[in-house]
Amino acid sequence: xxxxxxxxxxxxxxxxxxxxxxxxxxxxxxxxxxxxxxxxxxxxxxxxxxxxxxxxxxxxxxxxxxxxxxxxxxxxxxxxxxxxxxxxxxxxxxxxxxxxxxxxxxxxxxxxxxxxxxxxxxxxxxxxxxxxxxxxxxxxxxxxxxxxxxxxxxxxxxxxxxxxxxxxxxxxxxxxxxxxxxxxxxxxxxxxxxxxxxx
Length: 199
Known about the structure:
alpha+beta
């Protein structure tokens, strides 16, 4: 009888832990979205040979490198903290990078060291945790097409809208000329449906 009570207690405890972890993740994400500062990260063209994912848009960013004093101080996959500012057009800009979590008032985002150039330029490339924009599977492929076209057309401005708080980041949307990519995909689908109806 006692063994059954212990097993039941362990079961309840494990179930509560399993519920707590995702609930805490959702709560943290919502807190970053509601209380964080929005940054616009301008995107950069992706490798044209990169395969379509069908579930998310793979993002590359213009602002993902920063000059460091000594390239030998940094290694790949190292956890780092990018200190952020905004440029004159309001887009995110990396002002510096730190190995330790900043304790001042500055805004920062946690990232990973991706590549260090040892050619004298001392450029450190960063990998941000928000380089994938997930969408409903039925719309993701169309969104990828729209995104790739926007990267080819230099007249269009594409950026990721990211909310940041205490180093944590949540990717809110991908914008093309100020319009959500979700809205563009929906509008395209609506237009295609109307054209089929007219035939």
